[in-house]
Amino acid sequence: MDRKRWEDIISRGLEYALTFFLILAINFFLPRIMPGGPLLSILGSQNSDLPVVIDEETKYKLMDYYHLNDPLHIQFVHYLIDAVHLDFGYSIFYNVPVVDIILGRLPWTVFLMGTALLVSTFFGIWLGLESAWNRGKKLDNLLLVIMPTLKSVPTFFLGALMIFVFGYVMGWFPVSGAVTHYMNYGGIADRIKDMISHLILPMACLAAFEMPGTYLLVRNICVQQLERPYILMAMARGLKDRNIKKHVLINSIVPVINQIAAMLGFMVGGAVFVEAVFAYPGMGMLVYNSFIERDYPLLQGVFIFMSFCVLACNYAADITCSYIDGRTRQE
């Protein structure tokens, strides 16, 4: 590897490191400017039906344990030190280490987002290529109406619509959760079938929200590629349509990789709404619950972990694209 490539990798890494530090700062201050406090969910309020009664000494110890009595800048220092040591503390609401909660919910989100990413990428590329190949025809015009419309529909509304149509009216799929509780499986095949049946609706909702972006990008790039001289020469030589499409996709791969990496960030935001609508026990549902309960350690731990994963994927995509296309590195 030459020196220029090493400099490019290091400079991009520093940019992402600075971005991650800014995310850490926002992640720390944002929950603390919200009304209420993290102990409100534990202590309750005087107007609640079952307020938790504790003395002032215990309350002070709780505040001291979570550094809530310290000034904000002291809390921020403790926050950074703990983040470096991967110590996110204990969840205030669940009273369990934050890392244990995240590791318990992470597989479900990876399962949901991974399948949704594969489905949206496959159909986005396929439909984008077919739309470009048939540009100006009925298929292209139809897709150019459907895709932007699909993108404009909020995920929570689309999810609720899917639940009503395919869950209650048709009765084809379960409407909540990731597995059927208290179910005696006959074997691993039955368990996998049950997990997939619970996955289909939230995965389809998340994939439908992300697919139009890939479709529009692929279509626009492929339309430009189809007008290049080498494509016209290939058509004149009588190459099969399948081979011509293959060359078009190969020359369009760099922006598509960047699009896939960028989709992860949007999927994280979409997963919060999708998992909340379908009560899917992943990281998005964890964000929603921790936000409602003002659980600072859990909320910060989830955001840090998800932000790091998104930045790492984008960094890997940048480095990959710099190897695939030298023009990306020069820019």
Short note summarizing the structure:
The chain has 331 residues and is mainly alpha-helical.
Task: Please explain how this structure is put together.
The chain is mainly α. It has one domain: Orthogonal Bundle (MetI-like fold), CATH 1.10.3720. The protein contains 14 helices and no strands. The protein has helices at 3-32, 40-43, 56-65, 72-84, 98-133, 138-152, 155-169, 188-226, 229-236, 241-250, 253-278, 283-292, 296-324, 326-330. α6 packs across α8 (188-226) and α7 (155-169) packs across α11 (253-278). The protein is globular. The protein starts with a helix and ends with a helix.
Beta-strand share of residues: under 5%
- Element-level helix/strand string: HHHHHHHHHHHHHH
CATH homolog superfamily: MetI-like
Overall mean pLDDT stands at: 77
Per the CATH scheme, the topology name is MetI-like fold
Give me some keywords for this one.
single chain; 331 residues; mainly alpha; MetI-like fold; globular; disordered C terminus
Topology:
Blueprint: H1 3-32, H2 40-43, H3 56-65, H4 72-84, H5 98-133, H6 138-152, H7 155-169, H8 188-226, H9 229-236, H10 241-250, H11 253-278, H12 283-292, H13 296-324, H14 326-330
